[in-house]
Amino acid sequence: MRSGDIERALQSFSRLLAMAKRIPDSQGVCNAHMALALAYKKLNNEMNTEKHLRLSRERAVEFGLTRELAQAYYYTGEHFLSKRRPDIATPHLEKSFDLYNELGLHDEADKARTIAGVSKGQENIDKYIDLICRCGKVDSEAILVLCQWKNRRDVFFTEKKSYTEDSEELSDKHTDETTSSSLSIATITVAKSNIGD
């Protein structure tokens, strides 16, 4: 879409908003704010995009329009995710998911859940990259296993649990077998993280 087309669309959406306020048409007000937000987003005008997304959410709450509120949360989350702000995006997307579920709109809820998962992953990717970097070049096989976990969810760790003779659990932490007392039995539980089995 060309810039001139978007400018004309902005004028039309502004007129629609004014008309919806005069009638009054609560759903029209929410939809006009959403249309304005999306048009400003095309122009990379963050300030007005965020302003109209906020106004769309506020009007939806004011008028009790749950579907429009869910949509406003979804597009707000999507906007912030595109701006590399998953810390802001994730809560909006999760709220959208909850609202769509309450309404029984499962296709929309699934879409919000998927994007929320992407956003949550973006929040944690820096920690993952840091972990890879800290591994260094010492054990290339271990790094390969860690990378395969990210892509395929292959198992890459074991968890050791220590128990006394009475089978009371002492620790869930990763322990060194050399420090285990003779009264404890070390058991190894392999974490199964294959999703979808």
TrEMBL record:
Question: Where does it primarily localize?
Answer: cytoplasm
InterPro entries reported for this sequence: Bac_ResReg_Asp_Phosphatase, TPR-like_helical_dom_sf
Q: Which domain of life is it from?
A: Eukaryota
- What species is this protein from? Dinoponera quadriceps (South American ant)
Q: What's this chain's function?
A: Axonemal protein which is implicated in axonemal and/or peri-axonemal structure assembly and regulates flagellum assembly and beating and therefore sperm motility.
Q: Subcellular localization, per the record?
A: Cytoplasm
**Organism classification, top ranks?**
Eukaryota, Metazoa, Ecdysozoa, Arthropoda, Hexapoda
* Alphabetic keyword roster: Cytoplasm, Repeat, TPR repeat
Instruction: Please provide one cellular component term from the Gene Ontology annotations of this protein.
Output: cytoplasm
**Name of this protein:** Tetratricopeptide repeat protein 29
Q: List the GO biological process terms.
A: cilium movement
